[in-house]
Amino acid sequence: MIELLSSIEIRAPAETIWETLTDFPRFRDWNPFIREASGDARAGGTVHVRVRSSMAIPLKFHAEVLGSDEPHELRWRGHVLAPWFASGEHTFTLEERVAGSVHFVQREVFGGVLPRLFSRLLEREALRGFQVMNRALKARAEAACSAPARA
Questions:
Q1: CB atoms within 10 A of CB 79
Q2: Which partner from 75, 88, 119, 138 sits 20 to 30 angstroms from 3, CA to CA?
Q3: Neighbouring residues of 121: CB distance < 8 A, sequence distance ≥ 6
Q4: Are the CB atoms for 9 and 17 separated by under 8 Å?
Q5: Is residue 52 part of a domain?
Q6: How would you class 3 by CB atoms within 10 Å of its CB: exposed for 0-12, middle for 13-18, buried for 19 or more?
Q7: What per-residue confidence (pLDDT) applies to 149?
Q8: pLDDT tens, 37-74?
Q9: Average pLDDT over the chain, rounded to an integer
Q10: How would DSSP label each residue in 38-54?
Q11: Beta strands 46-52 and 87-96: pairing type?
Q12: Which uninterrupted H or E stretch holds 113?
């Protein structure tokens, strides 16, 4: 098993971050890592995802939503071809802090033959993807909080 973690502090309410994180149709507007997503973010739902690595290698998969505790945690598990070949359980955690900020964490546990064979490449590419997504989520959520309300 390979486990990766990436986190960032976001100065926005958890609800704002959650809305951005679960608004799958708008991912292509802001998310440089998960370029497309669709589906149901509720527990038991299915999410269809297209990821783009920094090496421009597209990866498509679908995942079962294992848990959805709005606005605190979203967790899904997916695989490529078959679970024994390449699988991952991904968790997005929003930990509320004082003064309206949130500690946002992405965690993925990879399993299967392919992740073991290409562990260094996977670790580098996935971690880079998590980091650019975290920064983009921070920018989007913080901008949403500073935008003037529309009448």
A1: 18
A2: 138
A3: none
A4: no
A5: yes
A6: exposed
A7: 57
A8: 999 999 999 999 998 877 666 788 899 999 999 999 99
A9: 91
A10: EE--STT-EEEEEEE-T
A11: unpaired
A12: helix 113-117
Q: CA–CA separation, 114 vs 138, rounded Å?
A: 31
What is the domain extent for residue 11?
2-146
Which tokens sit at 52? 């783009």
Q: Count up the domains in the chain and report the number.
A: 1
Q: What pLDDT is attached to residue 99? A: 80
Closest CA to 89 of 62, 112, 66, 108: 108
For 150, the token pair is 């529309």
Does any domain span residue 151?
Answer: no
Pick from 112, 55, 53: nearest CA to 78: 112
Alpha-carbon distance 33 to 136, whole Å? 9
Residue 27 pLDDT: 94
| Cα dihedral: 109, 113, 119, 121 (round 10) | -110
pLDDT, tens digit, for every residue of 68-115? 999 999 999 998 888 899 899 999 999 999 888 999 999 999 999 988
CATH number at residue 83: 3.30.530.20
Q: Among candidates 25, 15, 27, 40, which has minimal Cα distance to 137?
A: 27
- pTM summary value: 0.91
